[in-house]
Each structure stands twice: as C-alpha cells, then as structure tokens.
Design goal:
The protein is an alpha/beta fold and about 550 residues long. The chain folds into two domains: about 300 residues, Alkaline Phosphatase, subunit A (3-Layer(aba) Sandwich); about 180 residues, no CATH class. About 30% of the residues lie in helices and about 10% in strands. It is built from 17 helices and twelve strands. Strands 1, 2, 3, 4, 5, 6, 7 and 8 form an eight-stranded mixed β-sheet that branches. A four-stranded antiparallel β-sheet has the order 9-10-11-12, covered by helices on one side. The longest helix has 30 residues. The chain starts with 5 loop residues before the first helix and ends in a 9-residue tail after the last helix.
C-alpha cells in the first residue's frame, strides 16, 4: 500500500482548502433567484408601508405584503460606497480597509456575494449604481463588485433624475440569461440622491402638508418643499421596482425570487446622511420570497443590512468566503418562520460606523464615528471630536473645488462654505442664511457644530437625536453599559480605531480618488501636530508652483 508522504499530504491539504473555499452549492436544484433593490439616500420611515402619507411606494408595499416588513433595519455605514462594500462582503466597514472609506478602492481579496454567486453558477449583473463611488479597476477586478453592468438603455427623465431605464435594463439582463441559470441582479438607483429639481414634488401632486419634518430641521415651507422633492425621487425608484416585479411575475419567476428592497444610507439632509444619527442609519427594509417566506408579517428585531449577506449565502446554498468570514448573521430562520414582532430576542443591538466621507477638512481627514443602537438607546463614540463633523466652516477658494491659485495664495472662501459632508441643497442654504436667527440658528449648529466624544440618545422619546444624555447622571449606567458593549464588539471584530497602535490612522492613508478640497490648518493641528497623520497621497496632489519640489 502506498503510504502518503509529507509532500502528498501537503497537496491533499491545499486541494482540500481550495475545494472548501470555492463557492460550491450545497444543492443545485431549484435555486432561488435574487433581486436586490437599493435606493440611494432614503431614510426610514419614508415608504407608505410604514404609514408615511407624503409619498406612495406601491412596489415596496407589495414586497412587504408578499413577505416581511422590517421595522428596525440599520445600515453598516451612513455613506454610499462604504455601505455597499460592507453589504457585498457581509463585513463591517472597519474590516474591509480601503473599501470602508468613501471614494477609495475595493481590495479584490474581499469577495462580494455577487462574485461568489457568479462563480457558483448564477447569472449576475447590475443596473444603475453598483459599488460606487470609487476605483475598483486598480485592484485587478474585471467588473464592478456588483457584477457586469446593464445600464445602456435610457429614457427621458425629469431634471435631476438619472436617465437610465433601470427596469428596461433588467428586462435585457433577463433576456440574456442562459436558459436554466438562476440569476442575481443588483438594482441600484441613483434616486433619491441629490440634486433634486426644485418643485418637482408639487409638480407631481405631492402634498407638503403631509410631510413630517424631523425634529433636527425647522418646520418651514422651504424645508417641507425640499423634503417633498426628495419624496418624488423615492417614488421614481419605486416605480422601476414595480416594473421589475411585474416582469418577474409575467415570466413566472417571482415566486422563487428573493426580493430585498432597502437603501444604502439616510436622506441627503443635514444631520442625516453621513451621520450615525437615527436618520442616517435607520433604513427601510422589505424582504419577500413567496415560495419560502410566509407573507404579511412585520419583524421588530434589530437587524444589520450585513445580516442580509449571510441570509443570501444560506438561502442560495453558496458557501461564503472563509479567509474573510462574514460578520452578519443569517435571517433565514426568521424569514421562513411564521413569527412576527420580536422573533429572535438575541438581536438586541446593531453597530454602525463611518470614516472619511467627502473632502471636507484639513488634509481631507475623516470624521470617524462608531455607534451601537439598541431598542432604547443610540450611543455614539466620536473618535476625533476636535474635527468638524460636517466639514470645516471655511475652505480655500470660493468654488466647489478650488483653483490652484486659490490654494497657493491661501485665499479664503465664504464663511459656512466648507460643509461638504452635507450635500449641497436648499435646506443647507436655508440653514446658513438663517445662522444668526435667534430661533432658526440652532438648526445649523446641530448640523455642523463641534460634538463631544460621547453622545447618548433615548430613541423612544427622541428619534431626532436632539437631547444628548451622555452627561446626565441618571443615564450614566446606560452610557457605561453601551460604551462597554461597543468597545467589546469593536475589539472582537478588529477595528483599527480601537486595537491598532496608530489608533486607526490607517484609514486616513487610503487615497480618495475623487477631487480634493483644501483648508487652512486648524488650531487643534497647530497645537497638537502629532494628531495629524502623515499622508503622502494628499501631499502628492497638493497644488505647487511649477517646478517646485513635491
């Protein structure tokens, strides 16, 4: 008998590891299709299934009725590309390096579910906005992490809305699908991302009287109209989803298709998007799979959108990555049960975080935040509280991106002109115009003012996150408990902001591929230069006089 040698054992081990690492299907029969629909910048509860009367979302409501409506779903990050990378990989944003920041790269070693499903025999693709913004090509990927793109078909869209005919491109995707192959399709709308056509909500019959203005914004006609225009763009996203559902039904595919409808992060308004406050991280979510998921239920468990990644792997029978394992927990058991309300009492907390969003501060530094949300509280840890949360008030130059001359001469732009972690919009302009008003001025301060290292909000009575309880003695035990829970989780999951010797400055070294803005050196950096990380990638892009050394 031939005895195995050390070399043959090594070969068997390597082969075994390779085979085990491949996304092989556990059962290749009757595999479900997947349709993931992600709007761009939509907060909970802005869908009519949640009782929000200012808009109508019949397609979202249909998915909720066919399956499950989630009341407590949260994004892993309140920004576009970090959330999408986290969702694709099933990992927290602090676990995926460059991809955890905005507009950087997506290291190829972190596989997304679209890649894994494609390797396992699924026909995959996306329309509209896949993983973006950022540069995936420099990592050696052949396609966007969301799959091959299907966005060629267009229509005449209203001002401010992308001309891609998402539903028609989905139909083309289905037409090209090889016979007998299951599919996984990513519908990434660019709506309701700004900018909006001013007045488009009223133009289409939406009623500003039905708007519920969040408590962190003033209730004025200008703000109501801006939110109304946002609502119309949510409806645009929903309309294309409805066409896709109808197409699946016509082709007899709807029953065996897992349909997930959600958003990447909160509404593009001050103190919402790019913030880990409630309106930045609390997401709409409806999931249906008529063949397996009992219909017409509402689930109140706290779920992270990266839990959906684990759910897709389990439902499709495709093995998830082993080298960089999932951080989310599958929801398949809850989905396929008949339970409603609190289904799994262990799902009592979710975690979220952010790093750099736009180029909004000195040296394009980020505003790192981590948060834990329970059923009662939201606890926020601001790791660099000396920095401006929405961007420094004043930048160099008056244009959106300064001219080299403005940077070289140190020309200061307008006061309140540097809040670029807030998308330019009528609401921000209104807040700036009324900054000195005795009643309205506080709303700008809420959006852009310096924040303490710790924040604590009782979500039961303060979903707008206005009354910070972190310093209240009667809430000290809750704060300590949540701080401990957050730090324990960050340590367990290897967050560099907690476990690394450089306190997570590695995140600042990941290049931004979009344009840069330039800002005066702030007082905190002059007083404590050790708090400023060395960033060669920034210095390489700093404007220079011709011939000056870099």
């Amino acid at each position: 008998m031939l005895k195995p040698t050390r070399d043959t054992l090594s070969v068997f081990f390597v082969l075994g590891f390779v085979v085990a690492s491949q996304p092989v299907l556990a059962d290749t029969r009757n595999r479900p299709n997947v349709l993931v629909a992600i709007s761009d910048d939509q907060s909970y509860p802005h869908a009519s299934a949640y009782g929000y009367e200012a808009l109508h979302t019949p397609a979202f409501d249909r998915v909720a009725k066919m399956g499950v409506l989630f009341q407590n779903a949260f994004t892993p990050a309140p920004g576009c590309s970090p959330m999408r990378a986290a969702f694709l990989t099933g990992r927290h944003v602090w676990q995926i390096e460059h991809a955890g920041t905005h507009a950087s790269t997506f290291p190829a070693k972190y596989e997304g579910f679209q890649e894994r499903l494609g390797t396992a025999g699924y026909f995959v693709g996306f329309t509209g906005k896949g993983w973006a913004p950022g540069n995936w090509k420099d990592t050696g990927r052949a396609t966007n992490p969301a799959g091959p793109e299907f966005s060629k078909l267009t229509l005449r869209a209203p001002e401010g809305i992308r001309s891609t005919d998402y539903a028609a491109n989905f139909a083309e995707f289905l037409r090209q699908r090889p016979k007998g192959k299951p599919f996984s399709f990513w519908y990434g709308a660019s709506e309701p991302h700004r900018k909006f056509k001013k007045g488009i909500g009223r133009e289409h019959g939406l009623d500003p009287a039905k708007i519920v203005v969040p408590g962190f914004l003033p209730d004025t006609p200008e703000i109501r109209d801006d939110i109304l225009d946002y609502c119309y763009e949510v409806e645009w996203f929903d309309e294309h989803l409805g066409r896709m559902l109808n197409l699946l039904e016509e082709q007899g595919e709807l029953d065996n298709t897992i349909v997930i409808v959600t958003s990447d992060n909160g509404m593009a308004f001050p103190r919402a998007k790019a913030n880990v406050y409630e309106y930045g991280i609390h997401m709409p979510l409806a999931v249906a799979w008529p063949a397996r998921v009992p219909a017409g239920r509402t689930i109140d468990d706290l779920v992270d959108l990266i839990d959906l990644t684990a759910t897709l792997y389990e439902a499709t029978g495709v093995r998830p990555p082993r080298r960089y394992p999932l951080s989310g927990r599958s929801l398949l058991g809850a989905l396929t049960s008949s339970a409603r309300g609190i289904v799994d009492s262990s799902r009592d907390a979710v975690f979220s975080g952010r790093e750099r969003h736009s180029s909004s501060r000195f040296m394009t530094l980020g505003y790192p935040q981590r948060a834990v949300r329970t059923r009662d509280y939201l606890y926020i840890y601001n790791l660099r509280p000396e920095r401006w949360p929405a961007g420094a008030p004043r930048k160099l130059g008056s244009a959106n991106y300064p001219t080299p001359e403005a940077v070289l001469t140190g020309e200061l732009g307008l006061e309140h002109g540097g809040y670029h972690d807030i998308d330019a919009c009528p609401t921000l302009s209104f807040l700036i115009d009324n900054a000195a008003d005795s009643t309205l001025g506080r709303f700008l301060r809420l959006a852009v003012g310096i924040r303490p290292a710790e924040e604590l909000y009782d979500i039961r009575v303060d979903p707008a996150c206005i009354n910070n309880l972190a310093g209240a003695p009667e809430h000290s035990k809750a704060k300590q408990r949540l701080r401990s829970r957050l730090i324990t989780h960050l340590t367990k999951t290897g967050d560099p902001r907690v476990v690394a010797s450089d306190s997570g400055d590695i995140f600042e070294t990941y290049p931004r591929y979009s344009k840069l803005r330039w800002f005066p050196t702030p007082a905190w950096a002059k007083g404590n230069p050790k708090r400023v990380p060395l960033l060669p990638w920034v210095e390489k892009r700093r404007p220079r006089i011709d011939g000056a050394p870099r």
